[in-house]
Write a structure and sequence with these properties.
This protein is of the alpha/beta class and 290 residues long. Strand 6 (210-216), helix 9 (221-237) and strand 7 form a beta-alpha-beta unit. The protein has a 4-stranded parallel sheet, with helices on both faces. It has helices at residues 6-18, 51-62, 74-82, 100-111, 121-135, 145-153, 167-181, 190-193, 221-237, 251-272, 281-287; strands spanning 40-44, 66-71, 86-89, 158-162, 185-189, 210-216, 241-246. The protein has 11 helices and 7 strands. 47% of the residues lie in helices and 13% in strands. The protein has 2 domains: 2-114, 3-Layer(aba) Sandwich (Rossmann fold), CATH 3.40.50; 121-272, 3-Layer(aba) Sandwich (Rossmann fold).
C-alpha cells in the first residue's frame, strides 16, 4: 500500500516485458483466488504494521503460497518468524516513499532469475548519479528539469500520461504529488488515455489543468506515434502540456531515473507552496495516529 507498493509497481513493469511468468501487484486487503501453493507472494511494508498488507500475508500463508516478507520489523516480521517464512529486514526511514531503494533492491534481486535479461545495476547506478547532478537544488532553474516540471505543474490539477514502459514511474509520480506536494493527479498509460481521459479536454479546457507526458526514447513505433498525435491534439486545442523523454538505454534505468526526477519535482512543488513534503495529516487521521 502507498509508498511501499512502488517497488511492486516497478517489478510488475519489468516482468511484464521480460518474463513469461505473470506478475500482479495487489493493493488491498485480500488476495485474488488464483493465488495458491504454486504462487510466490512478496509482502512489502516499510513499518511491517500496515493493516491491509498483514491481512494479505496471513491469507497467503493459509493458502500455502511461498511467502517472502520485506519490512523494517513490526508485526510482519513476527508473522514471518512464526511461520518460518523468509524476512528481509530493511532500515526504517520513517517515510515509505523515501525508502524505495531499500524496498526495491531485494525485489530486483529476487526476480532477476525469472527474466530473459540480466538487470544491469551498474548502468542504473551510473545513470542515477548523472540524474542527481541535474536535479539537485544547487542547479539553476534554466538547467534543472525537475524545477522546470515543478514550475509547469504548480497550481491546479495535474495529469500524467506515461509510456507503457514507464507506467510504474507515472504511478509513483501521482503518489508523490499526492503525498509530497498535496496536489491531485490523474495518471494513465498514453495508449489507454487516448481512448478515455483525452475526451474531456475538448469540452472542459478551463478545468483540465496541466498535462505531463512521460515517454522513453526506446518506445515502440506505436507508442511514439501516439505521443505525437496527442501532442498535436493538445496544440490544436491550446492545452498546456510538457513532454519528458527519458534517454536511458534500458528500461530499469529509465524507470528508476524517471522516478528520481519526478520525485524531486514533487518536492520542489511542495516547497514552492510552503508545504512540508514529509507530513501527511489526512493519512494520520484515517489511520488513527493523530
Amino acid at each position: 500500500m502507498g509508498g511501499s507498493a512502488s517497488a511492486g509497481d516497478i517489478i510488475s513493469n519489468l516482468v511484464y516485458d521480460h518474463s513469461p511468468i505473470p506478475c500482479k501487484v495487489i493493493k488491498g486487503g485480500s488476495l485474488p483466488r488464483f493465488v495458491g501453493e504454486n504462487s510466490l507472494v512478496v509482502v512489502s511494508s516499510l513499518s511491517g504494521n500496515t493493516e491491509e498488507t498483514l491481512s494479505m500475508a496471513k491469507e497467503a500463508l493459509k493458502r500455502h503460497a511461498e511467502v517472502i516478507c520485506i519490512s523494517s520489523g513490526g508485526k510482519l516480521k513476527e508473522l514471518a518468524d512464526r511461520n518460518a517464512s523468509e524476512h528481509v529486514t530493511i532500515p526504517n526511514l520513517g517515510l515509505s516513499r523515501a525508502s524505495l531503494p531499500y524496498l526495491i533492491m531485494p525485489c530486483l534481486s529476487l526476480v532477476d532469475n525469472f527474466m530473459d535479461i540480466k538487470l544491469d545495476f551498474k548502468t542504473m547506478e551510473k545513470e542515477l548519479k548523472a540524474m542527481r547532478n541535474k536535479v539537485i537544488v544547487t542547479v539553476v532553474d534554466e538547467r534543472n528539469l525537475a524545477k522546470q516540471i515543478s514550475g509547469f505543474l504548480r497550481g491546479g490539477l495535474a495529469f500524467c500520461f506515461a509510456s507503457p514502459a514507464l507506467i510504474a514511474a507515472g504511478t509513483r509520480f501521482k503518489d508523490s504529488l499526492n503525498e509530497n506536494a498535496k496536489v491531485h493527479c490523474l495518471e494513465e498509460s498514453i495508449l489507454e488515455a487516448s481512448h478515455n481521459e483525452i475526451v474531456p479536454f475538448s469540452f472542459e479546457a478551463e478545468l483540465s489543468g496541466k498535462v505531463l507526458l512521460l515517454s522513453w526514447a526506446r518506445d515502440s513505433t506505436l507508442v511514439r506515434n501516439r505521443f505525437k498525435r496527442v501532442c498535436s491534439f493538445f496544440q490544436r486545442i491550446r492545452q498546456p502540456y510538457m513532454q519528458i523523454i527519458s534517454n536511458e538505454k534500458d528500461d530499469l534505468s529509465a524507470l528508476i531515473c524517471s522516478i528520481y526526477l519526478l520525485d524531486f519535482s514533487s518536492i520542489y512543488i511542495a516547497k514552492s507552496r510552503g508545504i512540508d513534503p514529509c507530513i501527511t495529516p489526512a493519512i494520520d487521521i484515517i489511520k488513527g495516529t493523530k
